[in-house]
């Protein structure tokens, strides 16, 4: 009987260890040899340049970027067999000349890969997207909502998708007047830019339909919500909203794609669904292709928001909060041993260190004590955007 | 003198007159007997001659016969047999053989000694004399040999005999015991109150009584007219021998029911479990046709049905979440349980409301004779039960509690996360029964269980089950009795997060169900048993609320409006024994469901996938106004045909309707699942099942084999669109789709519940498929084709074995294998619309690795002295002996753009446990 409490205690620890369970990595055979399907991303622009990106599916645990489909022969084809060619651009992008597609005809995308497979999307009607009536913004307690209004008097559109490209100004907090070049500290020759422009494409799928309404009107659909602390609102923000009219089938595709990929695999995640699109392989039906190719025109509208227009009490962040205050690299300490400024500076600013000097720090009197410094990301705004002023800015 | 006394009693009470034809004792007998108990030996001699043996079974139970005889006179055989034993025998001129210990008697009495007087109320007078302070066995034996005269003489040729079978020691009713007359092949079994009603030809009958957990006995009656017979039987204290065979004999081959699994608490105790505590639901899962998605889950999938399609009744009150601690324990304290019945097909008409099965859990009534208690100490929980009479023989109480001390253990651990975690539960069950008079009894049960767990000091989960039932049973006459039952069930959960003051919040859900039902049983004659009744229950659901906690919280309250509905049903069924070989049970249940206001109901554009964007109207319904109504018949048919004494064929057809749906889009049941009532946008589920089975017993009913096959269709059960939001959703119908299902399978079952080696082996081949072929293509799953459900595990083999070395030591082994459950895999990733997307396989197209587990337990019983202060037993167990890491959950996580798969094994190592049980 003396051992009884001990046994119980031991069992308890066992149990607790067990309640946490054991996690092992799981790689079923199906994942070891992932399918290599063609992925078609893009639409046939009824009034303008068509850009279609061709890539391949790849292993879920890969760190690489999606493998592009190179040297394919891609063209737009109508039901009579007339072809409009696409030219291969960079990294699997295939681009057409500016085109106008005939709304009375049906078109499809045809892709002949270098490996000899023949892919085609289904023939789709040409939809003409109505213009965007307005892109507006509204300040809410949570932040800024970007809203879009549109309508179609013909009641022909009904299904809509929007994407957008955001651009915003970046003002780095530092203006360095020294630079470290070839192991030497010197006055700066080419100053770092004081303004950059960041940009991003929408990643979320924004769709809406008006089938439940008596008129084909979209009013105040929120395409973007920016948190009130967003760094994109620091000084000036712009968003270009692009509108696509969809067919019912394409709308269903995007709706499913959105639900499918907006969450991934925790213990309690919902069931995903298999989704392909409207592209088939004509030469080998078991070779799947992913993506939905439709034919429509695209309309767009731009919106600007300046910091001054936002509520004053908002504590908008600059995105450089983590960069303040600057660090200091001292060249006169520790002492002893007698410090070697060359070694210290090399250690602090060699190209691999990722740090840049900002300005000299002088001690009592004119004695050079060292330099203030910060990482490149805090100083060179080209890590966050481009110095090329956008044409619309 | 001790051993002679029973013989004398027997002589007094035996009225039976044999007519002597010849001196049977000189008749020759043959046989080859090896280690045969004397009782069976005597029966064999009786079968070869017209001799009847009289002896005290408890006296001869140590006597085993090993003998080989060929055409030898009975007298000489008996002389050989009893030679060198203290036993003597005597044969009288009426061919009666008396076996006595130590003393030889002279069986020939003076002729006038024994003259029965017609019409004397022998039964009452002698019963009084026989009870009292005399030894127990003496009383029982006396009742066996006494002849009870029932009723008053009348002209009718048939009469009804009714009464109760109760345990002699505790006064509790014996459920499911059978009482039958072999000569007329008429029998009945006792219901949940221990009540039976038997219509027999008037005259003399020898009634045999058999049942689980009781010793076989018999009563001799002279039936003159309608009357009562109260039977007290001895409990079988230590061994499961005999008793179970006899009961199962009835059930397996000659019983009407098919697809019924009955387990008593003694059988359940033998099955090893993870934490050493007897677990009703775990044992149920070892039965063929019952599956579960994972081992940490108590969600049952019965014959391809979803986890919400099981009606779990605890003394008639519905239990919504039958689990404790993430499902590692079932919510029922084993000490208070009498047994469980699982109906997989041929669900009786009196049950309804769920599609797949009924799990009827009953508690014991408590000891009506003396105060006693029992309990146990296990690695994670302890439990204590007290019971006793409130008024002797009339009323009793039983109260049982169980609590975990996992909280305390977590506090002892050095890990900071553990210290701030908490996990604990407790449950309390109380039951009172009172017999007002011969015709009226009342019963009341209360049940409360609660769970609370907190993970690393942030989020606290808590859930509570409450159930109560009150029953009044009234016997109108021998042929008719009724039970009026009021029930109340409550389930609620809350998830509280208080770590961040500004976002401190509580998410809560609650369901309340109150019901009233009346059930009647009518026994017009021995060939018909009619059950009828009606029920009505009111549901009130608080479907979800999200409210701030504390002053500083900025959470905006979001409270979903209450849902209300009334579900009512009427039923009638008749069990008709057309011939002794062929019987039929025909039942009809008609159910009506009314969803009640006040409610706001959305109307959706027809032909469109339901989304917020397709809402075309909102209709406001006033309080208590019926906003949606569904009704329909539920057919319950079954038939049995006995091919011979050892085998039978049974068939059944069952339709069920279900109006309340559990919403869970995770594979296993989680405490945050909600129950949703049918309404204008959510149709009720309807299930149809056809089942055929063949049943055969071998080796004198010690081995029981059955094969059952079934085909089942399920209409409109709830499945979910991809990415469904189930919590705090004001338009839940936009995320739900009505799915169609089909399930089929074959179940092989072999059971041996006697002998040193006992247990069962079951193999099931089954499929469970679902189809979502909605009108709108975007809602279709897998292109509208049938696909496996989450719990489709085609092959399943389970073995539960028990080997008894002696009465004190036994071992149990539990082995289970099943196909891995289906899973949807992310097969590849790709880049579309500026974002990384995942290409998934068809839903449930792949399977997780197969499931395999072996458990072992060693039981040590204390000494078997009947009179002892306390009985105790130890159970040492190892769960998952091989330490196989069966995946409980498989999940994928995106880490730096890589998607990696992980499998989580809950019990990834052997788990030893030790439990101490006691009884006083």
UniProtKB/TrEMBL annotation, chain A:
InterPro entries: DUF4249 (IPR025345). It comes from the Bacteria. Pfam families: DUF4249 (PF14054). This is DUF4249 domain-containing protein.
UniProtKB/TrEMBL annotation, chain B:
The keyword Zinc-finger does not apply. It holds the Pfam family Plug. Transmembrane segments: none annotated. InterPro entries: Beta-barrel_TonB, Beta-barrel_TonB_sf, CarboxyPept-like_regulatory, Plug_dom, Plug_dom_sf, TonB-dep_rcpt-like. Residues 422-881 form the TonB-dependent receptor-like beta-barrel domain. It comes from the Bacteria. It is found in: Cell outer membrane. Residues 274-354 form the TonB-dependent receptor plug domain. Its main location: membrane. Keywords: Cell outer membrane, Membrane, Receptor, Signal, TonB box, Transmembrane, Transmembrane beta strand, Transport. Residues 1-22 form the signal peptide. The keyword Manganese does not apply. It is a multi-pass membrane protein. Belongs to the TonB-dependent receptor family. This is TonB-dependent receptor. It comes from Hymenobacter jeongseonensis.
């Amino acid at each position: 009987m003396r051992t009884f409490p001990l046994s119980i205690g031991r069992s308890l620890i066992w149990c607790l260890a067990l309640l946490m369970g054991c996690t092992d990595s799981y790689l079923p055979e199906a994942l070891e040899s992932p399918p290599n399907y063609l992925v078609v991303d893009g639409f046939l622009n009824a009034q303008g340049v068509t850009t279609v990106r061709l890539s391949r599916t790849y292993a879920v645990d890969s760190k690489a970027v999606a493998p592009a489909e190179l040297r394919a022969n891609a063209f737009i084809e109508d039901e009579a067999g007339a072809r409009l060619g696409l030219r291969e651009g960079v990294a699997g992008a295939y681009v057409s000349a500016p085109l106008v597609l005939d709304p009375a005809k049906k078109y499809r995308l045809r892709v002949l890969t270098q490996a000899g497979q023949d892919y085609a999307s289904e023939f789709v009607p040409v939809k003409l997207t109505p213009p965007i009536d307005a892109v507006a913004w509204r300040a809410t307690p949570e932040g800024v909502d970007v809203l879009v209004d549109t309508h179609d008097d013909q009641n022909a559109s009904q299904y809509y998708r929007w994407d957008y490209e955001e651009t915003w100004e970046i003002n780095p907090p530092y203006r360095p007047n020294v630079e470290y070049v070839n192991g030497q500290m010197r006055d700066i020759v080419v100053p770092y830019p004081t303004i950059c422009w960041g940009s991003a494409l929408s990643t979320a799928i924004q769709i809406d339909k008006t089938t439940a309404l008596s008129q084909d009107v979209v009013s105040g659909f929120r395409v973007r919500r920016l948190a009130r602390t967003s760094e994109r609102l620091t000084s000036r923000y712009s968003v270009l909203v692009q509108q696509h009219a969809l067919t019912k089938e394409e709308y269903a595709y995007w709706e499913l794609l959105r639900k499918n990929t907006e969450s991934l695999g925790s213990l309690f995640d919902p069931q995903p669904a298999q989704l392909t699109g409207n592209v088939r392989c004509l030469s080998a039906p078991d070779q799947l292709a992913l993506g939905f190719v439709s034919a429509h025109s695209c309309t767009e509208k731009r919106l600007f928001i300046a910091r001054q227009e936002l509520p004053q009490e908002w504590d908008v962040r600059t995105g450089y909060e983590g960069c303040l205050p600057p660090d200091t690299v001292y060249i006169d300490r520790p002492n002893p041993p007698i410090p070697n400024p060359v070694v210290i500076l090399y250690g602090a600013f060699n190209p691999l260190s990722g740090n840049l000097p900002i300005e000299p720090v002088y001690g009592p009197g004119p004695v050079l004590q060292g330099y203030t410094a910060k990482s490149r990301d805090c100083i060179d705004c080209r890590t966050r955007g481009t110095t090329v002023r956008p044409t619309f800015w | 003198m001790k051993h002679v006394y029973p013989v004398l009693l027997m002589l007094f009470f035996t009225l039976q007159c044999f007519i002597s034809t010849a001196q049977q004792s000189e008749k020759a007998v043959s046989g080859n007997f090896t280690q045969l108990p004397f009782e069976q030996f005597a029966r064999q001699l009786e079968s070869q001659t017209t001799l009847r043996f009289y002896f005290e079974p408890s006296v001869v139970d140590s006597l085993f016969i090993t003998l080989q005889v060929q055409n030898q006179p009975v007298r000489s055989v008996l002389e050989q047999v009893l030679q060198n034993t203290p036993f003597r025998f005597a044969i009288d001129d009426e061919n009666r053989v008396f076996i006595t210990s130590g003393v030889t008697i002279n069986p020939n009495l003076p002729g006038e000694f024994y003259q029965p007087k017609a019409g004397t109320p022998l039964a009452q007078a002698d019963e009084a004399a026989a009870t009292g302070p005399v030894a127990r066995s003496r009383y029982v034996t006396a009742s066996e040999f006494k002849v009870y005269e029932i009723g008053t003489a009348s002209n009718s040729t048939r009469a009804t005999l009714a009464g109760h079978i109760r345990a002699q020691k505790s006064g509790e009713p014996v459920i499911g015991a059978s009482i039958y007359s072999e000569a007329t092949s008429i029998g009945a079994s006792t219901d949940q109150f221990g009540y039976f009603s038997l219509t027999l030809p008037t005259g003399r009958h020898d009634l045999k009584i058999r049942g689980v957990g009781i010793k076989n006995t018999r009563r001799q009656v002279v039936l003159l007219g309608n009357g009562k017979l109260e039977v007290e039987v001895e409990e079988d204290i230590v061994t499961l021998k005999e008793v179970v065979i006899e009961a199962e004999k009835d059930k397996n081959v000659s019983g009407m029911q098919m697809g019924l699994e009955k387990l008593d608490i003694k059988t359940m105790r033998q099955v090893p479990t993870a934490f050493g505590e007897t677990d009703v639901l775990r044992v149920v899962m070892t039965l063929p046709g019952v599956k579960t998605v994972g081992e940490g889950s108590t969600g049952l999938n019965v014959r391809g049905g979803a986890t919400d399609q099981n009606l779990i009744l605890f003394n008639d009150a519905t239990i919504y979440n039958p689990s404790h601690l993430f499902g590692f324990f079932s919510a029922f304290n084993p000490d208070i349980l009498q047994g469980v019945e699982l109906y997989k097909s041929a669900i009786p008409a009196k049950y309804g409301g769920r599609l797949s099965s009924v799990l009827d859990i009953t508690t014991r009534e408590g000891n009506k004779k003396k105060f006693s208690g029992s309990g146990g100490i296990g690695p994670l929980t302890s439990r204590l039960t007290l019971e006793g009479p409130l008024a002797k023989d009339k009323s009793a109480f039983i109260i049982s509690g169980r609590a975990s001390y996992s909280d305390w253990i977590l506090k002892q651990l050095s890990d900071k996360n553990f210290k701030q975690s908490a996990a604990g539960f407790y449950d309390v069950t109380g039951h009172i029964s009172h017999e007002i008079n011969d015709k009226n009894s009342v019963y009341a049960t209360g049940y409360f269980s609660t769970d609370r767990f907190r993970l690393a000091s942030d989020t606290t989960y808590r859930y509570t089950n409450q159930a109560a039932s009150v029953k009044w049973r009234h016997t109108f006459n021998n042929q008719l009795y009724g039970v009026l039952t009021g029930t109340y069930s409550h389930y609620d959960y809350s998830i509280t997060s208080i770590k961040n003051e500004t976002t401190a919040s509580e998410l809560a859900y609650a369901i309340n169900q109150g019901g009233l039902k009346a059930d009647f049983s009518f026994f017009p004659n021995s060939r018909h048993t009619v059950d009828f009744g009606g029920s009505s229950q009111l549901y009130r659901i608080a479907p979800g609320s999200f409210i701030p906690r504390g002053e500083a919280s900025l959470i905006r309250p979001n409270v979903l409006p209450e849902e209300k509905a009334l579900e009512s049903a009427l039923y009638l069924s008749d069990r008709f024994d057309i011939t002794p070989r062929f019987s039929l049970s025909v039942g009809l249940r008609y159910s009506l469901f009314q969803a009640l206001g006040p409610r706001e109901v959305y109307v959706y554009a027809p032909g469109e996938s339901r989304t917020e964007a397709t809402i075309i109207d909102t209709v406001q319904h006033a309080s208590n106004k019926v906003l949606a109504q569904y009704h329909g018949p539920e057919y319950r048919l079954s038939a049995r045909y006995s091919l011979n004494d050892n085998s039978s064929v049974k068939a059944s057809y069952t339709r069920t309707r279900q109006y309340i749906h559990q919403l869970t889009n995770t594979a296993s049941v989680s405490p945050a699942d909600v129950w949703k009532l049918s309404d204008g946008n959510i149709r009720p589920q309807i299930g149809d099942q056809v089942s055929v089975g063949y049943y055969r017993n071998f080796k004198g009913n010690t081995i029981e084999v059955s094969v059952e096959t079934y085909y089942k269709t399920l209409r409109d059960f709830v499945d979910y669109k991809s990415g469904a939001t189930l919590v705090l959703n004001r338009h839940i119908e936009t995320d739900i789709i009505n799915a169609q299902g089909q399930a089929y399978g074959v179940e092989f079952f072999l059971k041996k519940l006697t002998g040193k080696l006992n247990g069962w082996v079951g193999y099931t081949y089954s499929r469970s498929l679902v189809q979502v072929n909605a009108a709108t293509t975007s809602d279709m799953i897998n292109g509208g084709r049938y696909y496996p459900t989450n719990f489709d595990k085609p092959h399943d083999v389970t073995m539960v074995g028990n080997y008894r070395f002696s009465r004190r030591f036994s071992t149990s082994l539990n082995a289970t294998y099943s196909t891995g459950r289906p899973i949807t895999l992310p097969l590849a990733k790709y880049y579309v619309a500026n974002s990384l997307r995942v290409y998934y396989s068809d839903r449930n197209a792949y399977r997780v690795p197969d499931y395999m587990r072996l458990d072992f337990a060693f039981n040590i019983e204390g000494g078997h002295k009947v009179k002892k202060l306390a009985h105790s037993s130890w159970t040492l167990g190892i769960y998952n002996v091989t330490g196989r890491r069966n995946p409980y959950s498989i999940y994928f996580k995106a880490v730096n753009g890589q998607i990696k798969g992980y499998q989580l094994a809950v019990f990834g190592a052997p788990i030893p446990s030790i439990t101490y049980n006691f009884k006083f």
